[in-house]
Amino acid sequence: MSPTVAVVMLLCVLANALGQVLLKKFALAHPTFTTLISLPETYSLFLPGLSLYVVGMVLWVGILRSTPLHIAFPVLGLAFVVVPVFSHFLLDEPVGWQTMLGGMVIMLGIWLSVRPA
C-alpha cells in the first residue's frame, strides 16, 4: 500500500468519525423528531456531519479503485477506535478500559489483515 493510499484511507476514517460526532451533537440538541426538521439553525451541525460522510464516501470510492477490498475494508475498523476518542474529547463521554482494550484488539486485527504475507 502506498503512503498516499494510507493517508487517504486515514482521511476517510477521520471524516466518518468526525461526521458521526457532529451528528451525535445534533441529535443531542434536538430530543424530538419535530425539532430535528423544523429549526434552520440545527443544520449547523447536521449539514457538516452529513457532508463529512459524503466526503468520506467519495474518498472511499477512490480507494476502491486502487486497493483490494480485503485490504481496504479492515482499515475502516479504525473508526471503532477513533469515534470513542473523538466522543471523549468533543462530547465529554467516558471511555472505559473495555473500550480501550477493544480498540487495541481491533488495531491488532487491522494490522494482521493488511500486513504483507
List the helices and strands and how they pair.
Layout: H1 3-29, H2 33-38, H3 43-66, H4 69-75, H5 79-91, H6 97-114
Task: Describe the overall structure.
This protein has 117 residues and is mostly helical. Helices cover 81% and strands 0% of the residues. It has 6 helices and no strands. The model has no long low-confidence stretch (mean pLDDT 87).
> What is the CA-atom radius of gyration, in angstroms?
16 Å
Which structural class fits the helix and strand makeup?
Answer: mainly alpha
Q: Which residue ranges are poorly predicted, with pLDDT under 50 across at least 5 consecutive positions?
A: none
N-to-C order of helices and strands: HHHHHH
- Write down the oligomeric state: single chain
> Largest sheet, described in full?
none
Proportion in helices:
over 70%
Main attributes of the structure:
117 residues; mainly alpha; flat
Short description:
With 117 residues, the protein is an all-alpha fold.
